[in-house]
Amino acid sequence: MRIGPIDLGERPVVLAPMEDVTDASFRILCREAGAAMVTTEFVSSDGLVRDVSKTIAKMHTLEEEAPVAVQIYGSLPDAMVDAAKMADKAAELAGGHGADVIDINFGCPVSKIAGRGAGSGMMREPDKLVAITEAIVKAVSKPVTVKTRLGWDENSKIIVELAERLQDVGVSALTIHGRTRCQMYKGEADWTLIGEVKNNPRMHIPIIGNGDINSAAKAKEAFDRYGVDGIMVGRASFGHPWIFTEIRHLLDTGSELPPMPVRDRVALAKRHFGLSLDLKGPVTGVYEMRRHLSCYFKGLRDFKETRIKLVTSKDPAEILSTLDYIAQRWGGEAPPVEGAYGI
Question: Which among 78, 93, 137, 308 is most buried, taking Cβ atoms within 10 Å?
Fold first, then answer.
């Protein structure tokens, strides 16, 4: 599968953008685990245009995580185009590797974004959505992709027609989450319309399916049953970045890997923690790792006190010592993984 000049290989599995999750340390870990491409956290077009330093910092990427997409969102056409131009020059503005792909977020369902007409809120204004996309494609040199949903609600599933229109204005790939905005993340993702888009004889750009891929078996089923070109994994990777290794192994060999033992999860958590400290310093690095650390060990018996220690300690040395204790006490166990979002 290719996105413009970027070859992602056969049946690629890519990391979805997730706010407060997909920072550089997590993206590197997922690339090392086998993700074919990763995506930044959501980058506000309004924030970029106002030169908000925190927003610009989200565009900072590293060579180790390439290929990487910078995802922008917003509802104002001029601001979106200006933000896309800035993302196109992310290496100059934010330093580091920059963007290989510019992804437009027309899929986020949370109220603070969709309620302002951005993210999946744009599904209520498909003409505006397409016009913004076309203007961005014309304004930048990098491949442009779109991530969206089936529609706004059950009565407005417009994705089949919308996919054709987005292709016609020049997007290089389309990711479809198999829910409407009104579903948020409830119920099961409906992949039938994703398959309908992929099997539409008019479509020739890559179609990436997203929604409820929380195991290697489900990823393989999605490829086999719906014929998508790629799979995007989001919530199930939180606390479980090695899901990309599991999926890749099943796709390539036909066999499933056994659950990862706790001692190996500790080693991965240490790698993640070290990257976070290196990239963000001891204060922010510790604070922002709290949301990740305990999720590595969900399902462990008698873990409550140790979990509290992991998520309250401010001392990197104490956290590393706690991780060593986890490896010593539970090292040989391999509990089933449950993502941070319960899938």
Answer: 137
CB atoms within 10 A of CB 93: 16
Measure CA of the first residue to CA of the last residue in the chain; give whole Å: 28
For 155-166, b where at least 16 C-beta lie within 10 A, e where not — what string? eebbbbebbebb
Sign, Cα dihedral of 12, 207, 187, 18? positive
Structure tokens at 211: 């929604």
Q: Where are the alpha helices (DSSP H) in the chain?
A: 24-33, 45-49, 53-57, 77-88, 90-94, 111-114, 126-139, 159-168, 192-198, 216-226, 243-253, 262-293, 304-312, 316-330
H helices within 144-184, ranges in order?
A: 159-168
Would you state the pLDDT for residue 338?
57
**Kind plus residue range of the DSSP H or E element containing 143:** none
**166 falls within a domain:** yes
Strand partners, 207: 174
Concerning whether 30 is annotated as a catalytic residue, the answer is no
Per the CB < 8 A criterion, the answer to whether 165 and 174 are in contact is no
Count of CB atoms within 10 A of residue 306's CB?
18
Placement of tokens 């204790």 in the chain = 325
User: The tokens of 320 are what?
Assistant: 């590393």
Domain shared by 203 and 316, yes or no = no
pLDDT at 59 over 90: no
Supply the DSSP symbol for 174: E
Q: Do 27 and 154 fall into the same domain?
A: yes
Please tell me the distance from the alpha carbon of residue 103 to that of residue 101, in angstroms, as a whole number.
6
Pairwise CA distance, residues 208 & 175, whole Å: 4
Do β-strands 144-149 and 101-106 pair in parallel, antiparallel, or remain unpaired?
A: parallel
Interatomic CA distance for residues 194 and 217, integer angstroms: 18
Tell me: the pLDDT tens digits for 103-114? 999 888 887 787
| Domains identified in the chain, total number | 2
pTM over 0.90: yes
117 with 239, same domain: the answer is yes
Its domain, for residue 237, covers 9-253
Query: CA angle, 195 as apex, 254 and 151 as ends, to 5°?
Result: 130
Torsion, CA 169, CA 72, CA 222, CA 201, rounded to 10: 0
